TrEMBL record:
<comment type="similarity">
    <text>Belongs to the ABC transporter superfamily. Spermidine/putrescine importer (TC 3.A.1.11.1) family.</text>
</comment>
<feature type="domain" description="ABC transporter">
    <location>
        <begin position="11"/>
        <end position="242"/>
    </location>
</feature>
<dbReference type="Pfam" id="PF00005">
    <property type="entry name" value="ABC_tran"/>
</dbReference>
<keyword id="KW-1278">Translocase</keyword>
<dbReference type="InterPro" id="IPR003593">
    <property type="entry name" value="AAA+_ATPase"/>
</dbReference>
<keyword id="KW-1003">Cell membrane</keyword>
<dbReference type="GO" id="GO:0015417">
    <property type="term" value="F:ABC-type polyamine transporter activity"/>
</dbReference>
<keyword id="KW-0067">ATP-binding</keyword>
<dbReference type="GO" id="GO:0016887">
    <property type="term" value="F:ATP hydrolysis activity"/>
</dbReference>
<dbReference type="InterPro" id="IPR008995">
    <property type="entry name" value="Mo/tungstate-bd_C_term_dom"/>
</dbReference>
<comment type="subunit">
    <text>The complex is composed of two ATP-binding proteins (PotA), two transmembrane proteins (PotB and PotC) and a solute-binding protein (PotD).</text>
</comment>
<dbReference type="InterPro" id="IPR005893">
    <property type="entry name" value="PotA-like"/>
</dbReference>
<dbReference type="InterPro" id="IPR003439">
    <property type="entry name" value="ABC_transporter-like_ATP-bd"/>
</dbReference>
<dbReference type="InterPro" id="IPR017871">
    <property type="entry name" value="ABC_transporter-like_CS"/>
</dbReference>
<dbReference type="InterPro" id="IPR027417">
    <property type="entry name" value="P-loop_NTPase"/>
</dbReference>
<dbReference type="GO" id="GO:0043190">
    <property type="term" value="C:ATP-binding cassette (ABC) transporter complex"/>
</dbReference>
<dbReference type="Pfam" id="PF08402">
    <property type="entry name" value="TOBE_2"/>
</dbReference>
Length: 367
């Protein structure tokens, strides 16, 4: 039975749970609402439930509990081919014995569209991915990136408003993957389609998405635009999973709404921004991004906290310098500096003082 609801979400998961065996929940309590036109990425480690969520939305799996709505209508009981959703799988699954044009036309034939209409739609979809001249080739006569474009065209041929993509670029080499990230994003923007994209590649997620849902253990850990996710992680899992992150272990000594005093395990006291700690006595992992750490005294901002550090390794990376330090017992503390003539190249064994602003230093849960 179709149910309508008041919010203007285009895709909505409400309290969705999924168990395959009737015992273990692989999706625990999924709440997610996307407006039309959004590019949303589900990012998370292997086994965290991303594909399962996509399959429930596509209709190839049913939710054990909860409701999934498309444009306000509950789709739990609508079969996959009636949901009007385009799908791109990791192994593009093009039919090898058919030409590119036949591959695209086939699903339209199954739906009994007349020939002229099929031809128009196929041409339009191929043009969208700039493969208009390749209709007569077989998949084996195309490069990996071209095959990927055809798989994308096949998802677009229905003119679906919602397209789901599960690790669509996993099989491509780095350069082609980066090119296709840009292409997919451009096509999605041009057509105004809503995309739910799955990847475990955080760079891909950050560069393509309007918002990213970070999954772990069957739950969304944080749902936010890329910059917020990177700059304001809400818990230790997200801080570690997204980008490079330095952690220092300690205990909360004092806490107010805007400041937590943390005693690091080496005895030093530092001021932090309390994010995912609630009371004194609690253990915490303090999180600081490498590029927020300064070691040049002249550039230290007022109010910065300083700590002693020993240089363990200096890595020249071209555009940036990446230096590994020992700080408060952590021998894997990374700092990053832009390569510029006036930036000192630190040497192993050197004793330095590093500093950062308390607001860049987030007290998170100890995991
Ligand atoms: N058909 C199935 N039957 C039983 N268990 C399944 C089935 N499909 C997935 N699972 C289990 O559900 C959990 C979530 O799997 P899912 O495929 O959603 O993860 P994922 O986040 O997509 O991982 P990956 O990044 O490896 O693709 C895993 O523990 C997996 O073993
Ligand atoms: Mg998967």
């Amino acid at each position: 039975m179709a149910e309508t609801q008041s919010s203007d979400a285009f895709v909505e998961f409400e309290r969705v749970q999924k168990s395959y065996d009737g015992e273990t929940l692989v999706v625990k309590d999924l709440n997610l609402a996307l407006p039309k036109g959004e590019f949303l990425t589900m990012l998370g480690p292997s086994g965290s439930g991303k594909t399962t969520c996509l399959m429930m939305l596509a209709g190839f799996e049913t939710a054990t509990h909860g409701d999934i709505r498309l444009d306000g209508v509950s789709i739990n009981n609508i079969p996959p081919h009636k949901r009007g959703i385009g799908m791109v799988f990791q192994n593009y699954a093009l039919f090898p014995h058919m030409t590119v044009a036949e591959n695209l036309s086939f699903p339209l034939e199954v739906r009994k569209l007349p020939k002229t209409e099929r031809e128009q739609k196929v041409k339009r979809a191929l043009d969208m991915v700039q493969m208009g001249d390749f209709g007569g080739r077989r998949p084996s006569q195309l490069s990996g990136g071209q095959q990927q474009r055809i798989a994308l065209a096949r998802a677009l041929v229905f003119e679906a408003e919602l397209v789901l993509m599960d690790e669509p670029l996993g099989a491509l080499d780095k350069q082609l993957r980066e090119h296709m990230q840009f292409e997919i994003k451009r096509i999605a923007d041009d057509l105004g389609i809503t995309v739910v994209y799955v990847t475990h590649d955080q760079t891909e997620a950050l560069t393509m998405s309007d918002r990213v849902a970070v999954f772990n253990d069957g739950r969304i850990q944080q749902l936010a635009p890329p910059d917020q996710l990177y700059e304001a992680p809400q818990n230790s899992f997200v801080a570690q999973f997204i980008g490079e992150n330095n952690t220092l272990e300690g205990v909360v000594k004092e806490i107010t709404s805007d400041k937590a005093v943390v005693q690091l395990d080496n005895g030093e006291l530092i001021d932090c921004k309390p994010v995912n700690v609630t009371k004194a006595g609690e253990r915490t992992l303090v999180s600081i991004r490498p590029e927020r750490v300064e070691y040049n005294k002249d550039r230290l901002q007022e109010g910065a906290h300083t700590l002693k550090a020993e240089v363990l390794e200096f890595i020249y990376m071209g555009d940036i310098f990446r230096t590994r330090l020992k700080v408060a017992g952590n021998t894997n503390f990374i700092i990053k500096t832009r390569n510029a003539p006036d930036v000192e190249r630190l040497k192993p064994g050197q004793q330095i003082e590093i500093g950062w602003l308390p607001e860049d230093c987030r007290a998170l849960d100890a995991v």
